[in-house]
């Protein structure tokens, strides 16, 4: 309100940590209240293309959004504050779990074209319940591994998304079927259908291409940098980043460092000369653009340090000197253009090296940047831990369900490949592994395992009921179009984040869109090819076993025949 009263020809820029916090809060509100409606419309449109019915397409995103609302309600009850990470919980719940309702309705519409209303509904629930339960369980477990992170926000995000997935699973198997039992949904328009042929040249080519990308991905991943920047959360075109750049250009710094200087007893005239030496040493540090301290007043007004310290204890003195003096302690402000975590740690180390040369003083180094640096130091550790925990938990659950090591290994191929490629995409697009991008791997694992589970379980069901030679192709025909529709809806939903003012969310969108596309491709092309290879290996082993058994029988029969001739 003060700046608005300036003349029109006056230009101004506002920067600093409070301004960053305000920008984050504004973007968080947009993410909660503005983007869900846009996300709902995009998902409804894609589901309509697949299901061919307006009402049918509305149910999955509607109840996923309701699950997200329940999740935010739980967050309010247990006192979780919405920040830059936890604010994405509702978005992830909608995008991750809306496919549950899609699978139920898609299966119902398929059976409804061949049988009655009630029979089709019961058949759809019976068919989809095991797949949905396993998908929801593995997804929730994947997000719950965030609880092992040292970051509070990541723990809360994992808990909230897991709760939301649970709500959405319940709605998909209870509420949506209840609505279908009252309203006989039918397809009124042509359904989007995509055929994938097993062993086609396209499929083989795509599988080889994915394998090649996985092989060369380490050459990109080795260049990935672990770093974060609070101004890097915003797009370069934003007012906040422009203001920071203006501050750097004309003043040489944006966010300061503070050195709290302490000693036994009072600061004397002798200390003044030593503090001047400290300031000279600080000025010699790389990326230090200057300092501000009580010595500026001492030198400019020629007032001895002890007298200035006595004045600082008066009411008038506290008003003027509270920036540099607190009680008996002195505060030195170090000006620097650095805003990233790695640079902040380097600068802190350099400052400590200088201060350690003056053992007569005790000191502490503080800066808002060091809070981001502390998060950054744990990012890689948290990333490795969550990936290993999620992969291990998903592997054990799939092994229990499939009771077959080969099927389990085939099922996790898409999430392993997608996770590896996610880090390669970061390096290719020049993104850092930071607080925001570190959650992408966990999210992708929860998304992609859903596709793999549905395809694998459908394959096993058909294999038990029909000819084994056509089981893979039939499973691809049944599940492929649903996976494509779900993948398109996810990509469209995450693409909405490109229009936010925060770069951290647009970076998330970029990685998630490419990650989902990779997961869909690997599920629809690589998994069937591996299943076919598994069948061929089993057939060869079975043929060898049969050949050995025949040889043994012939070997036993020869002596008997010889004895008869004798």
Q: What's the CATH superfamily of the largest domain, by name?
A: Multidrug efflux transporter AcrB transmembrane domain
- Using the CA coordinates, give the radius of gyration: 32 Å
User: What is the level-2 CATH architecture name of the largest domain?
Assistant: Up-down Bundle
N-to-C SSE string, H for helix and E for strand:
HHHHHHHHEHEHHHEEHEHHHHH
Here the CATH topology of the largest domain equals Multidrug efflux transporter AcrB transmembrane fold
Mean pLDDT: 84
Regions with little confidence, pLDDT below 50 for 5+ residues: none
Keywords:
566 residues; mainly alpha; Multidrug efflux transporter AcrB transmembrane fold; Alpha-Beta Plaits; 2 domains; transmembrane; RND family transporter; SSD; Mycobact_MmpL; cell membrane
Structure description:
With 566 residues, the chain is mainly alpha-helical. The protein folds into 2 domains: 3-233 and 372-540, Multidrug efflux transporter AcrB transmembrane domain (Multidrug efflux transporter AcrB transmembrane fold), CATH 1.20.1640; 256-366, Multidrug efflux transporter AcrB pore domain like (Alpha-Beta Plaits), CATH 3.30.70.1320. The chain has 18 helices and 5 strands. It has helices at 17-33, 35-51, 54-77, 89-112, 117-144, 152-182, 201-221, 239-251, 269-283, 294-301, 305-311, 315-321, 341-355, 368-402, 405-428, 440-465, 468-495, 503-565; strands spanning 257-262, 290-292, 325-326, 329-335, 362-366. Strands 1, 2, 3, 4 and 5 form a 5-stranded antiparallel β-sheet that branches. Helix 2 (35-51) runs antiparallel to helix 3 (54-77), helix 7 packs across helix 15 (405-428) and helix 15 (405-428) packs antiparallel against helix 18. The chain is elongated and about 110 Å long. It starts with 16 loop residues before the first helix and ends with a helix. 42% of the residues are buried. The mean pLDDT is 84.
